[in-house]
Amino acid sequence: MKYRNLPVVAIAGRPNTGKSTLFNRLLRKRRAITGPAAGLTRDPVFAQAEICGKPVTLVDTGGFKLDRERGAVQANTMAQSSPELDELVVDRALRIIENADIVVLLLEAGNLTGEDEELIETLRPVQNRLIVAVNKTEGGRKQAEAWNVLSYGFEMIHLISAEHGDNVDELAEAIAARLDFSNIEINGGGENEGGEDEDDGVIRVTLTGKPNTGKSTLSNRLTASAASIVSPVPGTTRDVIEGEFVWKGRQFFICDTAGIRRKPKISGNIEYYSVNRAIKTMDEAEIVIILLNAPENVSDQDKKIAALACERGRGVIFALNKWDMMSDTPNMLNAARDRFRYSFAKMSYAPLLPVSALTGSGVDTLLSTCVKMKGQLWKQTPTAAFNAALAEWQRRYPPPSGPLTRFKIKYGTQTGVNPVVFRLFVSRPEACKESYLSYITRQIREELGYSLIPVKIELARSGREERKR
After folding, report:
1. In the chain, what percentage of residues exceed pLDDT 90?
2. CA distances to 18, 55, 159, 465 from 165, in Å
3. What are the start and end residues of each CATH 3.40.50.300 domain in the chain?
């Protein structure tokens, strides 16, 4: 995050008034999931935004439901609603509202519902921090009905269209005019997405895995918060939930993502977008923690998630969660590691760590491994040292010498960090077999200090056109 101590602007309202659309409009990017179905947002979604050129923390809250005792399956959603889940969503929204500097109450043009009226009464104690906006008034639509909102005792309302942008700039000006920006501090280093060539010291982690593996529980433990709603209902998390924390002086930025299921099991646009957002966070992370259920066998979906992270050159940690549910049988962990190595034979370098998100067991080891992995992702080996090692490796295990298989590695250099990439300049790249490149990769990991991360090798014809491995 670029700043600290930002004023907080929360958007509140009943389901389907357009809160997420307004959130995205103010943020100037598609961050929160939107759609025609009600109740899409569950966890509060936080983001740093600029309103009238001033930085703020913008929060999209879950919809306020009046009738929470009835759970119903909604069309085109990832998981069914439940009374307990509805209560969690509303409780989380009210806690955000209580601590926000400004609350934007978003209503919909037309007749107000019982949920609107209950929320208006609930917000009476924060009247001095309230800004009221009536949405879906594009082109003068339902403006006469919208002005009736003044009858609830509001001195001023803003008629807007979050989808079309009508009068949103005026709303932003009203928000900025009532905020105090005097306590803002710049967070050293600014923003830096994974894959860039400068390290700002922040360790960027994405939690991913199948649904119900404990991602939200672990995220809440790490951030010492309840930012992610924890529920036994699979698919509770839809948006990417971001958080920050400091561990032993190291700053972490963490993303809790929606559970990734197999394509045939993905139902509807909402889950499709949630899963794609989860995958996209891997592009912006340095380290991907894949949560596995310790009591279950490794699935094909676990393998596919690991492959997605490996393709992006990210550091991967397999967290064997719910280890507290396992028996105390001797060598249980060794047996689990043997099964794991069999399932992920090409990722033998990736650590497998037993943890319990519920009790906190193993979390310190997990974070310590993240710190080591961060160092390796940004490690740079001098060209002279690499070529000296390369010559020794070829001496130990010379390349093939047959007329069709002969090639010579003339020299090499490291060309990238995060992800780590080495380029070898070879006399005949087409003759360089995978087995020999695997040998070189293994030596790089073992002798140059890249033991925990994926290493990519590119081949280039010496003095001529390049060919990637």
Report:
1. 40
2. 12, 20, 11, 50
3. 3-186, 203-377
